[in-house]
Design brief:
388 residues; alpha/beta; Aspartate Aminotransferase, domain 1; 2 domains; three-stranded antiparallel beta sheet; binds pyridoxal-5'-phosphate
């Protein structure tokens, strides 16, 4: 069989490691293999790379280097933020506020904390996926210790009004955490402008390696570790540091910062073109979420009378790689909790397709993918019992 061109449009699931990132990482797998805790020159070399990386990641967030803790990724950062804050501050209260559209890393932490005696309010969102400030304000109680609202949603790309939420949280003296895994490196994520006390990020969503991430923790924030050991990372995250991964994350953060404005403009153009073409070519199709407060590369289509899974598999067979809902839930058959929270009916959720654009994508690919989607929908509608 001849080599088929593969088009990758699933950048919210993961991104390829940028060549510059790989290049920066390579020496730390070979000659610069030291343990950052060692006192000899191998150790010092690793320690220096670690602290330089901390400065670079802090730079992307407008934070101080000592406010960055390296972790194994977005999931661990979310766990450390939620469990760390809750367990350390429970004398002040046991109430936490989050939203119904969070990533499972947040929702499952909340379920665990509920078992530990915490109470969690899961805020509803509008049909565009937005948290309303009035709804949040009325959920705040005297025993609320933490608010966790994601910056941008991984399925529908909705960007939350974090600045406003930040002002409210500061006014009420409540810690604010944000899962910014989907937004870091793509849109501005200055922790002071956003007004957040904690922010989770993950390298593999921004052209860095898998298995490494960070948690920003504002100076003075009280939290406890969830992993005990040798006391690395200011005692908040024990375990020998993944220097190669951390160096990769730092390089990815630098690249994200440098390319952000041009990539935002380019991806927005590709995204809007793809939306326009698909809505034009496919009857009874729509966009989930909002086109206003949306990540530059995100599209989430709804199609009547078809299954997203069938579309995905057909598209894969013609070299187009996309997703239904989110990668984390696509092996389950339940409808997406995000789309349900936006008010879609379960059958409407099943006909959804998430397309997330990134650095490699071109306008030519957008045109090809629009055609491919139209062909796929037509094919399955043709054989669908529901028909038209
Ligand atoms: C991918 C993702 C995570 C998990 O990050 P990992 O590094 O894969 O553990 C958390 N939150 C959001 C919004 C994500 O998209």
């Amino acid at each position: 069989m001849s080599e088929m061109k593969r088009i990758y449009m699933d950048h919210s699931a993961t991104t390829p490691v940028a060549p510059e990132v790989l290049e920066a990482m390579m020496p730390y797998f070979s000659e610069k293999f030291g343990n950052a805790s060692s006192l000899h020159s191998f150790g010092l070399e690793a320690k220096e790379a670690l602290e330089e990386s901390r400065e670079k990641v802090a730079g992307l967030l407008g934070a101080k280097p000592e406010e960055i803790i390296f972790t194994s990724g977005g999931t661990e950062s979310d766990n450390l933020a939620l469990k760390g804050i809750a367990r350390k501050n429970q004398k002040s209260g046991k109430h936490i506020i989050t939203t119904r559209v969070e990533h499972p890393a947040i929702l499952e932490c909340c379920r665990r904390l509920e078992k530990e005696g915490f109470e969690v309010t899961y805020l509803p969102v509008t049909n565009e996926g937005l948290v309303e400030i009035a709804t949040l304000e009325s959920a705040i109680r005297s025993d609320t210790i933490l608010i966790s609202v994601m910056h941008a949603n991984n399925e529908v790309g909705t960007i939350q009004p974090l600045e406003e939420i930040g002002r409210l949280a500061a006014e009420k003296d409540i810690y604010l955490h944000t899962d910014a895994v989907q937004s870091v490196g793509k849109i501005p994520t200055d922790v002071n402008k956003l007004g957040v006390d904690l922010l989770s990020l993950s390298a593999h969503k921004l052209y860095g390696p898998k298995g490494v991430g960070a948690l920003y923790i504002r100076k003075g924030t009280r939290l406890e570790s969830i992993i005990q050991g040798g006391g690395h990372e200011r005692g908040l995250r024990s375990g020998t540091e993944n220097i190669a991964g951390i160096v990769g994350l730092a390089r990815a953060a630098e690249l994200g910062r440098e390319t952000m404005s041009t990539e935002t403009e380019r991806l927005t153009r590709l995204r809007d073109r793809l939306a326009e073409l698909v809505l034009l070519k496919v009857k009874e199709s729509w966009i989930n979420g909002t086109m206003k407060m949306r990540l530059p590369g995100n599209l989430n289509f709804g199609f009547k009378y078809v299954e997203g899974e069938s579309l995905l598999l057909f598209l894969d067979s013609i070299g187009i790689n996309v997703s239904t809902g989110s990668a984390c839930s696509s092996h389950k058959l339940e409808p997406s909790h995000v789309l349900l929270s936006l008010g879609l009916k379960p059958e409407e959720c099943h006909g959804s397709l998430r397309i997330t654009l990134g650095r490699s994508n071109t306008m030519e690919e957008v045109d090809y993918v629009a055609l491919g989607i139209a062909k796929a929908v037509e094919r399955f509608r043709g054989i669908s019992a529901l028909g038209r």
